[in-house]
Design a protein that fits this description.
By secondary structure, this protein is α/β, with parallel strands linked by helices. It contains 17 helices and nine strands.
Length: 394
């Protein structure tokens, strides 16, 4: 049996515990709701089912500006990527349709807006958008790349000779940087000569400003020439595993000449890589050669400029991990090829005056993309200026 004092102490302790539990319940924060009410209204008031539908039916020019493509091209792209980005409904909630997932991604590529900003625009939470965009970008790269990242070298060479007066050329190669947020524990690995953190983008472009090869992800401190030496294109060209045509004579000549890739001075001279002569003590024939090579090499710089002007996420510091940035850049390049090959979107994506053109007196008229203040590497005009000075003296 317990004594009276023990019973009294136990009773006081029980009362104190009850009071403490009641105070704890009183101060407890209310439970958070599963989904915000304004997000639940996405299907009824969301931008995909309202604004985009109005633009598609009433003003397609603004629809093209919003997504950087026409409604027909959007439907075509959605048909290709929908099987990879579709998700199943659950007992807890309905899945976001593939069309909305693609619209969110295209709008991010077109503007570079933050996930928070897109959350209020599309009524989708920021953490969900952070999963949607990398998934859709990977689908865009995996599916259409088979159609839009390929080349027939003979046809490419014919176009270079026809448009840029440079025969036996299968592409122009160059590299540029995409600024990223400094990765955790990255040190100076991604720190480049512009004093920013970036990854390097290496690309081969044909005569029509379309990418035939891309390599993304090298750290920003590396040089263009070093990145090229370590990419798959270098070994493919060295071992001729990409089915480059056999050497053929130049127009009006009999000696066979190899097919080449034109590049800037940072690349090493090879039998399949042609770069300009040094600027010192150039002969007339060397100046003419540099002039023609500069015209052909300018293609890749214009392609970089256009893609950064249209997909403006590339103009900003992308505050994501380098791996996610790789997916975004690859998707943008595939979309660039997709849009330039579509009749309905090509006039909007790259209208007349977009690229650099040259008059009969060798005067270069800058393309409209240069007015966009894009962050891609600017064209090295030293060769062009030297050639123009030479022609003016004649």
């Amino acid at each position: 049996m317990y004594s009276d004092n023990e019973i009294q102490a136990a009773a006081c302790l029980s009362v104190a515990l009850i009071i403490k539990l009641r105070r704890k319940r009183r101060n407890r924060k209310p439970k958070r709701c599963w989904t915000k009410e304004w997000i639940k209204n996405r299907e009824r008031h969301g931008i995909t089912n309202n604004l985009l539908r109005e633009l598609r039916e009433g003003d397609e020019s603004f629809y093209k500006n919003f997504l950087r493509m026409s409604a027909a091209d959007f439907d075509n792209l959605l048909e290709k990527v929908a099987p990879l980005i579709e998700r199943k409904d659950t007992l807890m909630r309905r899945a976001i349709p593939p069309a909305e997932r693609l619209v969110v991604t295209l709008r991010y590529l077109a503007t570079g807006d933050s996930y928070k900003s897109l959350m209020y625009l599309f009524r989708i939470t920021a953490n969900t958008i952070s999963q949607i965009i990398p998934e859709v970008c990977r689908a865009i790269y995996d599916v259409p790349k088979k159609e839009h990242l390929k080349a027939e070298w003979t046809e490419v060479a014919v176009e270079f000779e026809k448009k840029w007066n440079f025969p036996n050329c299968i592409g122009a190669i160059d590299g540029t940087h995409a600024n990223v947020e400094a990765p955790a524990n990255g040190g100076s690995l991604y720190f480049n000569y512009k004093h920013t953190h970036s990854i390097i983008l290496m690309a081969l472009v044909d005569a029509n400003y379309r990418f035939t090869y891309i390599n993304v992800g090298a750290p920003g401190r590396d040089s263009d020439g070093g990145v090229y030496q370590n990419c798959s294109l270098s070994s493919a060209l060295e071992n001729n595993t990409v089915n480059i045509p056999r050497a053929k004579p130049l127009p009006g000549r009999n000696k066979p000449v190899s097919y080449v890739v034109v590049a800037e001075d940072a690349f090493a001279l090879k039998s399949y890589i042609m770069k300009p002569f040094a600027n010192r003590n150039q002969s007339v024939s060397e100046r003419i050669f540099n002039y023609r090579l500069s015209r052909a090499r300018r293609i890749v710089e214009n392609a970089f400029g256009l893609i950064s002007a249209r997909f403006r996420c590339l103009r900003k510091t992308i505050e994501l991990s380098p791996k996610t940035v790789e997916r975004i850049v690859c998707a943008a390049w595939v979309l660039h090829n997709f849009l330039t090959s579509q009749t309905q979107s090509a006039s909007l994506y790259a209208p007349r005056g977009t690229f650099d053109v040259e008059n009969q007196d060798c005067t270069i008229i800058p393309g409209s993309w240069r007015n966009e203040d894009a962050t891609m590497v600017p064209m090295d005009r030293n060769v062009v200026i030297t050639i123009l000075a030479f022609w003016q003296k004649q």
